[in-house]
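Researcher: Re-running this chain for the archive, since the previous output was lost when a drive failed. Same request as before.
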Amino acid sequence: MYRGAENRFYLVREDVLSEAMTKTLEAKRLLESGTAKTVNEAVHSVDLSRSAFYKYRDGIYPFQTMVKEKIISISIHLDDRSGALSELLTLLAEVGCNILTIHQTIPLQGKANVTMSIETASANREIDGIIKALNKLDYVRQVNIIGSGA
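Model: Regenerated structure tokens:
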């Protein structure tokens, strides 16, 4: 990177990360959970060199770490069924999310789109767990994270 350049951030799917990056994330998880007591122990457990760990450790974080205590915006495509939105909101309340904004489109051909901003600081699940739970609802067709902010 040349001098004076701004740091730029990207949201990247796990399957496109290098092996060293995914092992760095796993080593960091072992350290944070207390499973590994030292960096040496953590990198040995995941078969990663210390130099690779130190190269990536301050530059790669799980998505949920970056959005903790922040607001995320999600888009949900769902079937137009009585009580669907109520059940979706109940699930979000049960996991501790605070709904800040919500917009539902007029259903067309039996489908509707709901866009909402939710605050996740008090959530009792990680973001990926919340998304998985939403996707398991019978009437939900797709859930996408469309943004995050402070």
